[in-house]
Amino acid sequence: MSRVIAIDGPSGAGKSTVARMVAARLGLPYLDTGAMYRAVGLLAFRRGIPLPIPDPGAVSVLAAGAAIDLSTSPEGTTVWLDGQDVSTAIREPRISLYASAVSAIPEVRRLLVARQREIGLARGGVVEGRDIGTKVFPETPWKFFLTADERERARRRHEELRRRGVEEPYEKVLEEMRVRDRDDSSRPDSPLTRDGGYEVLESDGVAAEEIARRILARVEAGEPSGP
After folding, report:
1. In this predicted structure, what is the pLDDT of residue 60?
2. Domain of 128: which CATH number?
């Protein structure tokens, strides 16, 4: 298997920033698997499917018929939906809720996990998501789980949105994050969780550079993760 480093955790824990740093240092692609679920969520939104999703089977059909691909590099990921670059559109706050909803559909997960494994096995990479080390690449020796207090995660998300020109009240961002945390952790298929092979990294008050350094120390020494 090509070298794969799994970085999992809830929204706002700092996964994207850390994963990009690790990928750049190792010269590996950075793969944001959550972007693929966002692409399916965007497709469902554009087709007028409401939340909560009334017919999960219809979304599965949409996902199966869609051409979703990622152009990966250490610098980032470009997301393609039916030949269109949707990297910006999938980051809208409402699409976050759609992403969580479609990710709870087992057939959608099976479709996208298969594609994620195909990309990772062919190219290797630093792979970010919520079930990378438990479902997508359970065999990788390097699995890291980033976490932080929910208010700190909401603050980071709020700042990220502001940098993109999206003005959302902090309390709304916090509530949407709580909803997504609850949905991601309680879904029956591949919930947000971890096994004994993970090293848990608390990112409250810790610079992303320090988190990346800890991960790189393990990987470059050839030491598997774990408590």
Report:
1. 97
2. 3.40.50.300
